[in-house]
Design goal:
620 residues, alpha/beta, Rossmann fold, 4 domains, 7-stranded mixed beta sheet, 6-stranded parallel beta sheet, 15 strands, globular, binds adenosine-5'-triphosphate, ATP binding, ATP-binding, P-loop_NTPase, isomerase, hydrolase
Length: 620
């Protein structure tokens, strides 16, 4: 590989602090790997004295692999490529051994005692109600944010809204419980490590002597507390090199702290800043579009992306009528593409469901980077399955009790309770009809409901879902309650669309649930091979590159998301800028072909194309 002058400068930087600010595809990871070898081979640095910190476990494995492939003669060297969490865990274990503390990790959700169960229990004890999956995720993100930004719960609440009742009490109770029983979640690894480094001079010295050269990849998504750990460790020599692209900072919601890059020269007065602005990955068309696009952000280091790569085809913007048209376009286009070099990207994991259904129908194998899709455990699916079960067996009062208030009919809890005392083999609607003093209006409703469920029992799943949605007025329930559950109505309506799509080729409830299980199985067990297309959220596509990139579901309100648009309208630009960076990460994954698709209609709801897409079109 022939290095540019910019790259050579970075590779040959040996001691003292340095920040390498680089554009996408500039060879940041490549440079770190070569610099590691340079330190060892040409500057006599003991490999064990080098610590390379990566963003994820996958990238640490990838970096080690690249090092071993490029320098097989050095493969046996013990260079430490690690995530910050893994590094911290090592430090904590050493500290725990010396001080005879038995810490237990609570990240493994297969064990009974894990952070999810613990938080669910605390939430239930305090709020007397079960926490939803979405709220649990928001709660975990908020706790992570507080720890990573080194805040208190009060400071967090001053600047952030969170839809969790008694958040502060829950937060404190979770923290106290963990402290009492020496339990650790991932974020505690950071807080405890920082405490150890601050309080144990012996360990601090030991680690400083062990890791005399520190390299940090993806510095833009390193959090405040992580930076603080790294800063302490690197002192006093400060042989620290941080490689970053502030324009690719996409983990603000988890406490990423790109401001540290902007303040680099405040923290390290003599620190050098190198720029790497040549992109080796993408065609000139993609580079020039990306360059213009990111310039609309204001909170950034000014950089220009250049490339010597040739012009290829223009960026392809496709606006289609419906989401089905989007999938059909994709399937057709993939016929001429090498699947292993192609990737479909989306803003939200939910988008994967529809495209997966279409890929399966067309016998196209796929690999999903995000294995755990919340969709399959969503209450909305449970509701739909409950409706279908009730249609098969209208005497099932347990099921009816789950759903009666979500559809038309004006049935009351008292009526249900009374009906439960009657013959369990009888249809629920007949039993409710025996409620003392029930009037003709209710009786007519009950006759109608009985007839509705009879009709549903003769329908195929797709038709049945339509009927539940509009005839039983489940859509009204969704409209009225979506915000309460942390969704927009459009989100929930899109989920119903996916369910109808999955139900399209199913004859009955059994086939429908089997198909849902089958898709879930394929997602969690998919592996990458020479004939699979990759599916990923943009967040998980960090660091990757593909010849063909498709970005789908590019509609306003989805990407950029509604809350960033609302914040922007109120004068707060930060979230919209993060959405733009995310979009930018997506488009810069493409080497040769970039296709951006916007459907106009999903489940009967009309959408506008993403404002980012309109902007790109204007830039052409
Ligand atoms: N000097 C070079 N000559 C040719 N190809 C190069 C050179 N430097 C890097 N590359 C190639 O460019 C591509 C991008 O490199 P790399 O993944 O290291 O970039 P990056 O800056 O880490 O990207 P990103 O931040 O966008 O994930 C890789 O395919 C790499 O092999």
């Amino acid at each position: 590989m022939k290095f540019s002058l910019e790259q050579k400068n970075a590779i040959n930087h040996i001691s003292g602090p340095a920040l390498i600010l680089a554009v996408p595809g500039a060879g940041k990871t490549t440079v770190l790997v070569h610099r590691t070898y340079n330190l060892i081979a040409n500057h006599n640095i003991n490999p064990e004295n080098i610590l390379s910190i990566t963003f994820s476990k996958a990238s640490s494995i990838d970096m080690k692999k690249r090092f071993n492939t490029l320098f097989p003669q050095a493969a046996s060297y013990n260079v430490h490529f690690s995530t910050i969490h893994s590094f911290c865990y090592g430090l904590i274990r050493e500290y725990a051994y010396i001080n005879r503390i038995n810490y237990r990790l609570i990240e493994d959700n297969k064990r009974q005692l894990n952070k999810y169960n613990l938080l669910k229990k605390i939430y239930l004890d305090i709020n007397k109600t079960y926490i939803t999956e979405e709220k649990l995720e928001n709660l975990l993100n908020a706790i992570g944010y507080i720890k990573n930004k080194m805040l208190t719960a009060d400071q967090y609440l001053q600047d952030n809204k969170i839809d969790i009742d008694n958040f502060k009490i829950i937060y404190n109770s979770y923290e106290n419980y963990k402290k009492k029983y020496n339990l650790l979640d991932f974020d505690d690894m950071l807080t405890i490590s920082l405490e150890i480094l601050k309080n144990s001079k012996i360990l601090l010295e030991k680690y400083r002597n062990r890791y005399k050269f520190i390299q940090v990849d993806e510095g833009q998504d390193t959090s405040k507390i992580q930076m603080e750990i790294i800063r302490l460790l690197a002192l006093p020599e400060n042989n620290l090199i941080i490689v970053a692209d502030d324009d690719q900072s996409i983990y603000g919601f988890r406490g990423a702290y790109p401001k540290a890059l902007l303040d680099f020269n405040k923290d390290y007065i003599n620190g050098k800043i190198f720029f790497m602005e040549e992109n080796y990955r993408s065609s000139k068309n993609i580079v020039s579009v990306s360059n213009k696009f990111i310039k609309s952000n204001t909170l950034r280091y000014k950089k220009e992306i250049k490339t010597h790569n040739p012009y290829l085809e223009p960026v392809n913007i496709i606006k289609v009528k419906s989401i089905t048209d989007q999938y059909e376009y994709l399937i057709e286009d993939l016929k001429n593409k090498d699947l292993s070099k192609s990737c479909i990207l989306y803003r939200n994991n939910l988008s994967s469901i529809g495209i997966i259904e279409f890929l399966i129908r067309n016998n196209i194998s796929f690999y999903t980077r995000d294995k755990k899709l919340r969709f399959f455990n969503h209450w909305l699916i449970k509701d739909i399955v409950d409706f279908l079960i009730l249609a098969k067996d209208t005497s099932n009062m347990d099921i009816y009790e789950n759903i009666y208030y979500k559809i038309k009919g004006y049935i009351s809890k008292n009526q249900i309770n009374y009906a439960k005392t009657l013959d369990a083999n009888k249809c629920v609607f007949e039993r409710i009809g025996e409620y003392p003093g029930i009037n003709e209006f209710y009786k007519r409703n009950l006759r109608e409901l009985k007839l509705d469920f009879k009709k549903i029992s003769n329908m195929k799943p797709r038709e049945a879902i339509f009927y539940i949605e509009y005839h039983l007025e489940y859509d009204i329930y969704l409209k009225e309650n979506s915000i309460k559950f942390g969704y927009t109505y459009d989100n929930l309506s899109t989920m119903l669309y996916y369910l109808k799509l999955i139900g399209e080729n199913c004859e009955n409830l059994e086939e429908f649930t089997q198909r849902l299980n089958h898709i879930q199985f394929l997602c969690s067990n998919s592996t990458k091979n020479t004939n699979t297309i990759t599916l990923s959220t943009i967040h998980s596509s960090k660091g990757l590159e593909f010849e063909n990139i498709y970005m789908i579901d590019l509609i306003d309100g989805e990407f950029p998301n509604t809350s960033s648009i609302e914040d922007f309208d109120l004068g707060n630009i930060e979230n919209l800028e993060e959405e733009r960076r995310l979009f930018y990460v997506g488009i810069t994954r493409a080497k040769k072909h970039l296709t951006l698709i916007a459907p106009n209609n999903i489940n009967g709801n009309e959408f506008l194309p993403s404002r980012f897409l309109n902007e790109l079109e204007k830039n052409f």
